[in-house]
Amino acid sequence: MTMRVGNGFDIHRFGDDPDRPLVLAGVVVPGTPGLLGHSDADVVAHAVADALLGSVGLGDIGMLFPDTDDRWRGADSIELLAEVVRRLRADGWRVVNVDCSVIAERPAIAPHREQMRERLAEVVEAPVSVKGRRAEGIGGLGRAEGIACLASVLVERDR
Ligand code: MG
């Protein structure tokens, strides 16, 4: 059985538009400003997509969905992640599991963790774990200037 591991990282800065929603793993999290980005700036979906692409050597989301392309303006990143999963499948791979660490001073991840986990699991069709971590006041993340996410994935050949 051929297996591959992948890792992904993403980081986005908070914006100051109170009407822009914060979207994490496809879940709208109320009470915290949205993140800046060309798409919906879903830092979790982006890190997972990059980990999946990296695992099988299909590049990265910047190559697939360039932010110079107006098609992806305001894009639902869960749709982009679904497209990445389709590409892996077309190449003969299936996802074994996904593990993410969301690094955020705010919002608290725990109240949304289960919903985030379910949303991602539905798209990748595999077990997903989501963990929230704070940056202990260190650097820009510690000053709550934005949110980062680390993702690890395992995939296996299914044919
Ligand atoms: Mg991103």
Task: Walk me through this protein's architecture.
This protein has a single domain, classed as 2-C-methyl-D-erythritol 2,4-cyclodiphosphate synthase (60s Ribosomal Protein L30, Chain: A, 2-Layer Sandwich). Helix 1 packs parallel to helix 3 (77-90). Strands 1-6-4-5 form a 4-stranded mixed sheet. Strands 2-3 form a two-stranded antiparallel sheet. It has 5 helices and 6 strands, in the order E-E-E-H-H-H-E-H-E-H-E. The protein has helices at 43-56, 61-64, 77-90, 113-124, 139-142; strands at residues 3-13, 22-24, 27-29, 93-103, 128-133, 146-157. The model has no long low-confidence stretch (mean pLDDT 95). By secondary structure, it is of the alpha+beta class. Strand 4 (93-103), helix 4 and strand 5 (128-133) form a beta-alpha-beta unit. Bound molecules: magnesium ion. Residues 10, 12, 37, 43, 46 line the site of magnesium ion. Magnesium ion binds next to strand 1 and helix 1.
